[in-house]
Amino acid sequence: MIRRVKKMKLSDATLDVLKNFSTVNQNILVKEGSKLRTMSTMKNILGEANIGEEFPKEFGIYDLNEFLGVFSLAKDAELVFENDSFLVVKSGKTKIKYFFSDPSILTTPPESFNAPETDIHFPVCGDTLGSILKSAAVMQLPDVVFHATGTNTYMTVTDLKNTTSNEFTKELEGAENQSEFKFHYKVDNLKMIPGDYDVSVSTTALVSNWKNSHKDISYWIALEQPSD
Questions:
Q1: Among residues 52, 112, 174, 212, which one has the fewest Cβ atoms lying within 10 Å of its Cβ?
Q2: In this structure, are strands 197-202 and 33-39 parallel, antiparallel, or unpaired?
Q3: Which H or E run includes 212?
């Protein structure tokens, strides 16, 4: 029986998704087709992206950062699938054999996900999200709080365990006239690829959906338990 060799290249957009997903979980199980999915080891972040390429088979990667580093060793590299145990990264005279990981040792998303009904909706622009995450890093603050007054909605980085914590606040554009609410995340859980997002929140299930406004990528991210 003749084995059919399958080849593909990865676009910069797909590499950006893989780099982002590596911050959610170092493992990934790539399924046959054009959808990439990941889930954090704590199972509180689920990421999904539709990409422009189609993977010809399912395979597991234990260390995604390592794989991306290996891929970068070959300029304009091509992935060659000719074996059930490994793929080949090939470019000109460069050839790298990279073995697959056993799926049973990977943290992978469930096959299906029943999305809860959401009751709060608002946009978060990329500039606001970027400045919030930057301020959290500069000020070393662990919590992001969303709160609406009934007329305006705000995003604040703070330390909820410290009553004298420094804070950085941005008002969200396009999120006026919200009913009053307050909920929060850990900064470390906001691992989205940079960009504008439409956010939907289920305050009963304590989970939120972040859909990128310009790219076919979204995340389900758990809220933290109310502190008051």
A1: 112
A2: unpaired
A3: strand 207-212
